[in-house]
Write a structure and sequence with these properties.
Radius of gyration: 22 Å
Shape: globular
Structural class: alpha/beta
Bound molecules: adenine
CATH class of the largest domain: Alpha Beta
CATH topology of the largest domain: Rossmann fold
Length: 418
């Protein structure tokens, strides 16, 4: 079996950490037990490009239990947990191609290695498998039943492909499930971004001016948790509805130009490019900290910052100092890559349980129904979303009410008024 990882000797540590994560993933555990009995993915070749974390390992085990042949590469050069990739290779016998800190060339080489499986299903976090297949590995398309996509940025890319009529197989957008974005994007990104900044900097939040660029579900989570830690939170937005929502949620809303002058810590969570750029760097206070929790490292104009800096040096792990010609220092965390996965461990297992339950059940859905689907982006079927919510509640020991016959009748009628 081929694999490319940092060090196989890290496998025992990875195994123990995967076990720890699995304890907080009861929904996936139930799915795994059913998959083991019924083998819904029997004979299916599944190529995955995901953050290689303990939670992803639990998903890989689940897919394998369902009968799939799985290969895995990283969806970001800095998010791999090397002990996890070692355990995946050694204990789970999964061909894995991922090394934390790999350069861009290796990153794409690993994508090609995973695609050598000639997959029936692709599982993406950021759409790099789909985009590589559609540009450089077109011959693979004929085998493919469909794909799944984990994250907002990937879904934006895939919808653009579908709108232009170039998407060649159906995709299920896991990101659009309620049991994904309400919890993973909001509570997961919220907590893990705070965690990443803390681990990288050891800064006190209280009393700091904390600027969140983007008030989507991830931005909402980051702002909420920063506020909870005592920071004075500012939100920047381009969407008037979201800007209004942030205002009514109690945050100061202003342009990045204004925020640049007062912020102590900046986090981008927009999915777009150059959200913090040259004109903002020149306005920033000495000591400003900048980081990104969006999928790609494009939200901060780092090339510009490098050009503007008269000096740069590494201060400690995950902190790079840039000294500008005006004498001020700006600190960039984790090379502008996902700070929550690069400097911390990503979202906690308890939320990844639901996101990855959606992945597993969407793969099963593709096997059952893929041939009848069009070459567009679909949401996760509502039945799956509700089933995951019900299983999660039950795992938490929470009981909910049921509609009575009378209530059902009332809700389906229009004649009854006051
Ligand atoms: N994306 C965000 N957090 C993650 C995690 N813990 N595992 C895999 N993908 C993630």
């Amino acid at each position: 079996m081929k694999y490319d990882i940092k060090d196989i000797r890290l496998a025992e540590n990875g195994k123990r950490r995967i076990e720890w994560a699995a304890k907080d993933m009861p929904v996936l555990k139930l799915i795994k037990a059913r998959f083991q009995r019924t083998k819904p993915l029997k004979g299916i070749r599944l190529a995955a490009c995901l953050h290689v974390t303990t939670e992803t390992a639990v998903l890989m085990e689940t897919l394998k239990a369902g009968g799939a042949h799985v290969t895995l590469c990283a969806s970001n050069p800095l998010s791999t947990q090397d002990d996890v990739s070692a355990s995946l290779a050694k204990h789970l016998k999964i061909p894995v191609f991922a090394i934390k800190g790999e350069d861009n060339k290796t990153y794409y080489k690993h994508i090609r290695s995973v695609l050598a499986l000639k997959p029936h299903i692709t599982m993406d976090d950021g759409a790099d498998l789909v985009s590589t297949i559609h540009t450089k590995e077109k011959s693979l398309i004929k085998n493919i039943i469909g794909g799944t996509e984990e994250t907002t940025t990937g879904v934006i890319r895939l919808r653009a492909m579908a709108d232009k009529g170039v998407l060649k197989y159906p995709i299920i957008s896991v990101n659009d499930a309620y049991t994904k974005y309400l919890f993973d994007n909001r509570y997961g990104t919220g907590q893990s971004t705070i965690d990443g900044i803390l681990r990288a900097t050891n800064r006190l939040y209280a009393g700091n001016v904390f600027v969140v660029a983007g008030y989507g579900w991830c931005g909402k989570g980051v702002a909420m948790r920063a506020k909870g830690m005592g920071a004075n939170v500012i939100v920047t937005e381009v969407n008037p509805l979201r800007a209004l929502e942030a205002t009514m949620d109690g945050y100061r809303v202003m342009s990045m130009k204004q925020a640049a002058e007062v912020g102590d810590i900046f986090v981008t969570v927009t999915g777009d490019i150059n959200v913090i750029e040259r004109s903002h760097f020149t306005r920033m206070k000495d000591g400003a900290i900048i980081c990104n929790s969006g999928h790609f490292n494009v939200e901060i104009a780092l090339k510009e910052l490098k050009k503007m800096a008269k000096r740069t040096r590494k201060i400690r792990e995950f902190i790079q100092e840039f000294t500008l010609k005006n004498g001020r220092n700006i600190y960039v965390l984790a090379e502008g890559r996902l700070v929550n996965l690069a400097a911390a461990e990503g979202h906690p297992s308890v939320v990844m349980d639901m996101s990855f339950a959606n992945q597993a059940l969407s793969a099963e859905h593709l096997v059952r129904k893929g041939k009848s689907l069009n070459k567009i982006v679909y949401g996760v079927p509502q039945k799956i979303d509700r089933e995951i919510a019900a299983l999660k509640l039950s795992s938490m020991g929470i009981k909910v009410d049921k509609l009575s016959t009378e209530q059902k009748k009332y809700l389906s009628s229009w004649e009854m008024g006051t």
